[in-house]
């Protein structure tokens, strides 16, 4: 199996960490989506990452779909069996991914528009949504122990992306979030290899 990814994509980071933790053997294929690589396009018509391709050639895309695939393939290593607990994990993952959506919207607004066409009200709106999400996370940190789940990997990927693109802009008033990666790394010591 292989995962098309970019090291800066939080969704790729989430999926790759989860596959590694769950023991699913995958090859990471570094991919530049700007070049519309044919092997990616042939697997995912949207040309988006991450995309997982199984050993029999089946393409699976959207990070949450991939996470559920990994969970099924590894007999429940990423999501609890209890329906209520599973919903809590899925909500945590959705919140983290949603904050990433806002952050990426900010990055793309600045990257793809000349400075005079950057729409600051749009950026402010995305920061407002991201800030609410981060505040909620800081107030409701997940329990973190030896049994990790999909929500933990989504949170770790989000915080890694914040440090990559918004270092120093999000930590104030969020000490639990700021300190959480150290706790996570105690239970997932390979975290450092996914920070690149």
Tell me about this structure.
- Helices cover 56% and strands 7% of the residues.
- The chain starts with a strand and ends in a 9-residue tail after the last helix.
- It contains seven helices and four strands.
- It has 196 residues and is α+β, with helices and mostly antiparallel strands.
- 34% of the residues are buried.
- Helix 1 (10-22) runs parallel beside helix 3 (63-73), helix 4 (83-112) packs antiparallel against helix 5 (120-139) and helix 4 (83-112) runs parallel beside helix 6 (150-166).
Gyration radius over CA: 17 Å
* Biggest beta-sheet profile: 4 strands, mixed
Main structural class: alpha+beta
Mean pLDDT: 96
Strand content: 5-15%
**Distance N to C terminus:** 22 Å
- What are the low-pLDDT stretches, counting only 5+ consecutive residues below 50? none
- Helix segment tally: 7
How are strands sequenced across the largest beta sheet? 2-1-3-4
Q: How do the SSEs run, as a string of H and E?
A: EHEHEEHHHHH
Give the overall form. globular
Roughly how much helix do the residues carry, as a percent range?
Answer: 55-70%
